[in-house]
Amino acid sequence: MARAEAWLAEDPDADTRAELAALIEAGDTAELTARFAGTLQFGTAGLRGELGAGPLRMNRSVVIRAAAGLAAYLKKHGTPHGTDTAGLVVIGYDARHKSADFARDTAAVMTGAGLRAAVLPRPLPTPVLAFAVRHLGAVAGVEVTASHNPPRDNGYKVYLGDGSQIVPPADAEIAAEIDAITTLTAVPRPDTGWETLGEDVLEAYLARTDAVLAQGSPRTARTVYTAMHGVGKETLLAAFARAGFPAPDLVAEQADPDPDFPTVAFPNPEEPGAMDLAFAKARETGPDLIIANDPDADRCAAAVKDGAHWRMLRGDEVGALLAAHLVARGAHGTFAESIVSSSLLGRIARKAGLPYEETLTGFKWIARVEGLRYGYEEALGYCVDPQGVRDKDGITAALLITELASRLKEEGRTLLDLLDDLAVEHGLHATDQLSVRVQDLSLIADAMRRLREQPPTALTGLPVTRAEDLTQGTEKLPATDGLRYTLDGARVIVRPSGTEPKLKCYLEVVVPVADHAGLPAAREKAAELLAAIKRDLSAAAGI
User: Fold this and answer.
1) 493: which strand partners?
2) How far apart are CA 495 and CA 507, in angstroms?
3) Taking the complete model, does pTM exceed 0.90, yes or no?
4) Maximum alpha-carbon separation in the chain
């Protein structure tokens, strides 16, 4: 109660002050404990959590402390970019509740700390912020977003001057600076002094998208597009118009930003039901392709007509399609993916004679691969222009997959035809996920402990030939909280989500295919194996 009253006394936000005062007056110790029994931890994903009062929620007080800690870290590490841009921090934000407030608070803190701050002109896609960090020669960037989390959440993502998200040890060093801030009264926050950027930053980002497409390539594919109530629409439409693609047909109900995400349970194209309105629009207009962004437009989903119905392509399928397209265009450089993504990318790269790397989960790792040309992970994240954006980018990925669909359309073929070709050439790589969302985080810890103490020796009759506890790290990978099981013709990785209260299990089976006639049987076998592995793994983990 004393901590809550002290927090209330310096809370700068009338909304959370009223909320907290009501809890204190009601003596709601259970809810106060849920908010004050610790602090929201700053890590390699920055901050992300539910909006509300208290140190275990996302609010202006937490953001001001985070910004002050980041400012202290930046000043301690110097500003290496010269006098004209020394100490510049670029700040972007999405259209969620409180995002604009958090961006302004960050700008005020940076200015008060003697750094320069520049805020993007309005809610824009996260990749525009990632681009702006490098384009403007900034020492850091901050994006206020909770990506595809539920409406009640918000978050705070930090980029350093190379344009990549933070990784250890920077995250721990910034966290230590945040912890050193005892009171908000010690954090100067002037009312003015920062810059609001103009449209030229967005124009520079859009000009950079020209580098994504091949000169003279077909631009004929027709699309349906949903922004999933996020900030992607204007930027994607501008990029498509610039490239010369037909204007996408919009899913009107989801086209404009709405922080309540009224038409979806979760604003993530992967979630059941999220694409239903897009499918309905496609049945009405008959496009070649459906494109979807998540709310901050750093992810890109694609759906295709499969027989009489529309279906979402898995992230691994889009990842392989984009890789094959880039290989066909003569791309050079390293292809990279996270360890939870399909091993098909490695086979495509090796056959093309290209370097290939695996990284830990997250674009903070993928973006740091030396000589990166293309990187992806299965959660709909694709980096197709690493010289422009060292992060996943749902706008440029949408351009590239639409270019591929256009090329195939000119040949009288579809994305599914190319996936069939890849399966015959490299084996059918089928992936699935066992994902469990929990209210009680201890259930995730219990499942991980159970698997460590009694690791499975076989799944669906396939012997586990290698079991790795990734907390020990490997020759090529830093330590992480995860488990990897290699089976004969299959692979399983288990890890807690870094951004949501979920335990995630990533499954892959590889079934050899002699020719196109063998594909239906191979798909049936793969589906049976995945279902059986999921069942056995669920039992082993107690979930």
Assistant:
1) 484, 506
2) 12
3) yes
4) 71
Whether the predicted pLDDT of 438 surpasses 90: no
The verdict on whether 164 is a catalytic residue reads no
How sure is the predictor about 79, in pLDDT bands with cuts at 50, 70 and 90? low
Q: Would you state the structure tokens that stand for residue 12, as one six-digit string? A: 């700068």
Gap between the Cα atoms of 29 and 19, Å rounded: 14
What backbone torsions phi and psi does residue 476 show, to the nearest 5 degrees? -110, -15
Tokens representing 537? Answer: 């793994």
Mean pLDDT of 180-197: 96
- For residue 86, the model assigns a pLDDT of 57
- Rounded distance, CA 403 to CA 245, Å? 9
* DSSP calls for 287-338: -SEEEEE-TTS--EEEEEEETTEEEEPPHHHHHHHHHHHHHHTT--SEEEEE
pLDDT at 82: 43
Q: Tell me which of 99, 147, 341, 406 is the catalytic residue.
A: 147
pLDDT one-digit tens code per residue, 283-306: 999 999 999 999 999 999 999 999
With beta carbons less than 8 A apart as the criterion, state whether 340 and 361 touch.
yes
Question: Which string of b and e fits 200-230 if b means at least 16 CB within 10 Å?
Answer: ebbeebbebbeebbeeebbbbbbbbbbbbbb
Say whether the peptide bond before residue 169 is cis (omega within 30 degrees of 0).
yes
Residue 407 tokens, joined: 């090329």
Residue 499 has pLDDT above 80, yes or no: no
Instruction: Output 17-26 pairs: Cβ under 8 A, ≥24 positions apart.
Output: 17/53, 19/52, 19/53, 20/53, 20/54, 23/53
Residue range 440-480, pLDDT digits in tens? 888 899 999 999 999 999 998 899 999 999 998 888 888 89
**pLDDT for residue 110 is more than 70:** yes
For every residue of 209-249, DSSP letters joined together read GGGGSPTT------EEEE-TTSS-HHHHHHHHHHHTPPPPE
Sign of CA dihedral 47, 145, 171, 17: negative
